[in-house]
Amino acid sequence: MTSAEHGHGGEMPRRDFLMVATGTVAVVGAAAAVWPLVDSMNPASDTLALASTEVDLAPIAEGQSITVQWRGKPVFVRYRTADEIKQARDIDATTLPDPKRDEERAQNPKWLVLVGVCTHLGCIPLGQRSAEPRGDFGGWFCPCHGSHYDTSGRIRKGPAPENLQVPAYTFLNDTKIRIG
């Protein structure tokens, strides 16, 4: 045997080189096979595009509500009247099933932003259109099981355990918000 076959003289024996090369190819091949699975766990591009949405408030009239989509859910944006604000603020929040003050739920008293999904079984409450029933408290009504929400989106009557969720949102200026 020569000294090169024994690994003497700083050279790698051919068998060791083949083992390292085979191992490297196996690792690269395994990574290439696993990558599509790992990549499929990332949010879809259409979902990432909806991570936040901007809403122009200028065309919404006082007393009117609109529904926008955010992360696949309806979001209710209501330009509340002075009477709706008064109704929401005149309630002793400690008497409510999910006690939250209106001031905690609306950054600007005129604008209420809520995820429009009933907290009981995930239905979409009525009350966005003026012709729809708004329940006993003037907010929203879920006819599926009879949950009534007030003008701050707080549960007042029925089986829903929590208030309508307030998503994270920011006022970009007086007439535009970013949800998410």
Q: Could you walk me through the main structural features you see in this protein, from its secondary elements to its overall organization?
A:
This protein is of the alpha+beta class and 180 residues long. It folds into 2 domains: 8-40, no CATH class; 48-179, Rieske [2Fe-2S] iron-sulphur domain (Rieske Iron-sulfur Protein, 3-layer Sandwich). It is 24% helix and 24% strand. A hairpin with a 2-residue loop joins strand 2 (65-70) and strand 3. It is elongated. The model has no long low-confidence stretch (mean pLDDT 88).
CATH class of the largest domain: Mainly Beta
Low-confidence stretches: none
Give the topology string: H per helix, E per strand.
HHEEEHHEEEEEE
Numbering strands along the chain, what is their spatial order in the largest sheet? 1-9-8
Shape: elongated
Question: Between the first and last Cα atoms, what is the distance in angstroms?
Answer: 71 Å
* Average of pLDDT: 88
Please, how many domains? 2
What is the helical fraction, as a range of percent?
10-25%
Computed over alpha carbons, the radius of gyration is 29 Å
Instruction: Assign the CATH architecture of the largest domain.
Output: 3-layer Sandwich
Largest sheet: 3 strands, antiparallel
Number of DSSP-assigned strands: 9
Our estimate of the beta-strand percent is 15-25%
CATH topology of the largest domain: Rieske Iron-sulfur Protein
Looking at CATH, the homologous superfamily of the largest domain is: Rieske [2Fe-2S] iron-sulphur domain
Structural class: alpha+beta
Distinct helical segment count: 4
